[in-house]
Amino acid sequence: MFTKAAFRGGWTIFGSRKCLDKVRRQVTWKMTALHPSRSITVAIEGNIGSGKTTFLDHFSKTKGIEVIQEPVDMWRNVRGHNTLALMYSDPKRWSFAFQSYVQLTMLDIHTRKQKSLIRMMERSIYSAKYCFVENMHESGNMTDAEYVVLTEWFDWILANQKVQIDLIVYLKTSPEVCHQRIKQRCREEEKAIPLDYLQALHSAHEDWLTHKKFPTPAPVLVLNGDHNLSDMYSVFEKNRHKILLGQNL
Ligand SMILES: Nc1ncnc2c1ncn2[C@@H]1O[C@H](COP(=O)(O)OP(=O)(O)O)[C@@H](O)[C@H]1O
Ligand SMILES: Nc1nc2c(ncn2[C@H]2C[C@H](O)[C@@H](COP(=O)(O)O)O2)c(=O)[nH]1
Questions:
Q1: For the residues 39-51, what does the mean pLDDT come to?
Q2: 249 exposed, middle or buried (CB, 10 Å; 0-12, 13-18, 19+)?
Q3: Cβ 58 under 6 angstroms from ligand 1
Q4: What is the rounded CA–CA span in Å between residue 206 and residue 103?
Q5: Is 51 in the pocket of ligand 1 (CB under 6 A)?
Q6: Residues assigned a catalytic role
Q7: Residue 52 CB less than 6 A away from ligand 2
Q8: Domain 38-245 falls in which CATH fold?
Q9: pLDDT tens-digit series, residues 78-108
Q10: Where does the Deoxynucleoside kinase domain lie (predicted)?
Q11: Hey, whose CA ends up nearest to atom 10 of ligand 1?
Q12: DSSP states of 163-187 as a string?
């Protein structure tokens, strides 16, 4: 560590005041880099099977980070009804009901009291609307009337509730890789997910996060999610300071 003398007599040890100021800036930046001055929320976005849970598991080991995974188990058991399975089995019939409940559960997460300085949440109310609801409406699985009712709810929530996020980490994983990983994970309800559904969801994420077809509520940090597991951990660590500062440096 730098001693007080070093700072006081900077010119003697560092050769010049300019050099000392540079060192001071670097030390200050390093010291704040892992401890933002206010609470921040980071949303991990990406296709099904893109590696979001793996990302969250990795950072859950860091002290001072609160991790909230997607409430999939709540969607699988709404007072005894598995709405996730219903949606996959008959999307035309169940997309609206399922997305209504997704929107409610995500709102609940966004508005929960934050337990740590840094909160990392799997997906957000934004991707539910801008990716999944858009895809269901475009694919004809949601009627115009259902779409506008969900949009009215969404617009009211944004106008009346605190659902802000400070950084979006976008795990950009190719649909083909997601498809392989979903098979590997073999979640019962997802066994029949076709590649073209993942391709449509990839386009929806790209439309939102890359082409900005819809507002992005925070800076977007794009990480290539196609690497193998050990390389992904290196990618996570290489970007740790950007992720924990809650901004795309
Ligand atoms: N980089 C990777 N390489 C190989 N398998 C991975 C990688 N990341 C995740 N997986 C595996 O793929 C499946 C889906 O990963 P997961 O993190 O659950 O994705 P998501 O939460 O985005 O759906 C899991 O079985 C997980 O162990
Ligand atoms: N139709 C929607 N499905 C959603 C939404 N959010 C998540 N999901 C599905 C996709 C997966 O089958 C499962 C968990 O997602 P992972 O990406 O974590 O595997 O839930 C949504 O808003 N609409």
A1: 97
A2: exposed
A3: no
A4: 21
A5: yes
A6: 122
A7: yes
A8: Rossmann fold (3.40.50)
A9: 999 999 999 999 999 999 999 999 999 999 9
A10: 43-237
A11: 51
A12: ---SEEEEEE--HHHHHHHHHHH--
Average pLDDT, the chain: 89
Give distance in angstroms: CA of 54 to centre of ligand 1.
Answer: 6
Distances (CA, A) of 69 to 58, 109, 156: 13, 10, 24
DSSP structure class, residue 131: I
Listed by start position, the domains of the chain span 38-245
- Which residues, 6 or more positions from 171, have their beta carbon under 8 angstroms from its beta carbon? 44, 45, 46, 47, 50, 51, 52, 55, 223, 225
Nearest CA to 196 out of 128, 138, 127, 151 is that of 138
Reported as a single tens digit per residue, the pLDDT across 166-224 is 999 999 999 999 999 999 998 888 888 999 999 999 999 999 999 999 999 999 999 99
Q: Is the CB of residue 81 below 6 angstroms from any atom belonging to ligand 1?
A: no
Predicted confidence at residue 25, as pLDDT, reads 56
Q: Are 225 and 152 in contact (CB under 8 A)?
A: no
DSSP 114: P
Q: How far is it, in rounded angstroms, from Cα 39 to Cα 116?
A: 7
Q: What band does 123 get if pLDDT is binned at 50, 70 and 90?
A: very high
Q: What is the pTM of this model?
A: 0.86
For ligand 2, what atom is nearest to the CA of residue 135?
1
Q: Write out the binding residues.
A: 46-54, 181-185
- Indicate the SS3 state at residue 44: strand
Q: Return the pLDDT at 218.
A: 97
